[in-house]
Amino acid sequence: VYINQTGEFVYAQQVNEDSTTLEPVPEAVKEQLQQLIGSNLDAEKRIQGILNSPDGAMLFATNPILTSNGDGPVRGNIVIYRYLNNEEFVYLSGMIGHNIVLEDKI
User: Fold this and answer.
1) What are the Cα distances from residue 85, in Å, to 12, 43, 44, 89, 91?
2) What is the 3-state secondary structure (H, E, C) of the chain?
3) CA distance 29 to 21
4) Residue 78 in contact with residue 33, Cβ under 8 Å?
5) Which of the chain's ends, N or C, has fewer CB atoms near its CB within 10 Å?
6) 105 pLDDT more than 70
7) pLDDT tens digits for 36-89?
8) Distance separating alpha carbons of residues 80 and 77, to the nearest angstrom
């Protein structure tokens, strides 16, 4: 996903796991990413974590778009994500030594 410096989605595609073809990122996922990232113009701000989307849990990471030297101004943000299945939750739980449970906000 590419989000420009004003917070608009310029490119938003995901790979369909079954057919390995590109498809649009669901609107609900775009809305969640928009709330998390917005129009981030901080060259030092990177966001990563697990997002509980309507299509399932996603492991995601964002990075601001900078020059090759790592200088600003920020030109937008790149977001990379993948959906997590139960097997990956078991693996991640084993890595950190704690069970991972996703709950909806109350």
Assistant:
1) 22, 32, 31, 6, 10
2) CEEECCCCEEECEEECCCCCCEEECCHHHHHHHHHHHCCCCCCCCCCEEEEEECCEEEEEEEEECCCCCCCCCCCEEEEEEEECCHHHHHHHHHHHCCCCCCCCCC
3) 18
4) no
5) C
6) no
7) 888 788 888 999 988 888 888 899 999 999 999 888 899 999 999 998 888 888
8) 10
* pLDDT reported for residue 106: 47
> Residue 67 contacts by C-beta under 8 Å, 6 or more apart in sequence?
none
pLDDT, residue 3, reads 93
Judge whether residue 104 has pLDDT over 80.
Answer: no
